[in-house]
Amino acid sequence: MPDGILTWNAIFDDHPARVASRRSIETVCRKAKDEWLALYSDDALIEDPVGPSPFDPQGRGHRGRERMSAYWDGTIATVDRIDFTVDASYPSGNEVANVASMRAHLPGGVQIQTFGVYVYRIGDGGLIDSLRTYWDFDRAMGTVSAER
């Protein structure tokens, strides 16, 4: 299966949080788990999506490398390809909020599209301390379709 595609329609400059977010998305598109984990601090928190979901029933997020690795294995690793389109990107302080859509290509030709806001916060060393994503799980499930 080929790598996923990142389409960046937003402004792109050297804002550190924006750069870190783009690197994170690029590693997801390439399904490069070890590179992705290396972009995050040891105590980083992933909330994808924020609040309770089938990926995180208690809505506490996935904190630390071990839990982030398990999150990857239960989500990103289960799909054949992930394509991202970032339409807007708003940096502020040590954070950036990206308005984006993500299309997951699952085994058997099934696709799911998610529309959301992806907020990355970096620490002093430039590593990502948190990723908080805001998207509607039920709406995403409503987009399930078969590839043609």
How do the helices and strands line up, and which of them pair or pack?
Elements: E1 6-8, H1 16-30, H2 33-38, E2 40-47, E3 62-63, H3 65-74, E4 81-92, E5 95-105, E6 110-122, E7 128-134, H4 137-141, E8 145-146
Parallel strand pairs: 1-4, 2-7
Antiparallel strand pairs: 2-3, 4-5, 5-6, 6-7, 6-8
How would you characterize this protein structure?
It is built from four helices and eight strands, in the order E-H-H-E-E-H-E-E-E-E-H-E. The protein is of the alpha+beta class and 148 residues long. The protein has one domain: Nuclear Transport Factor 2, Chain: A (Roll), CATH 3.10.450. Strands 1, 2, 3, 4, 5, 6, 7 and 8 form an eight-stranded mixed beta sheet that branches. A hairpin with a 4-residue loop joins strand 5 and strand 6. The longest helix is centred in the first third of the chain and has 15 residues. It is globular and about 45 Å long. It starts with 5 loop residues before the first strand and ends with a strand. The model has no long low-confidence stretch (mean pLDDT 95).
Question: What features would you highlight for this structure?
Answer:
alpha+beta, Nuclear Transport Factor 2, Chain: A, 4 helices, 148 residues, 39% strand, eight-stranded mixed sheet
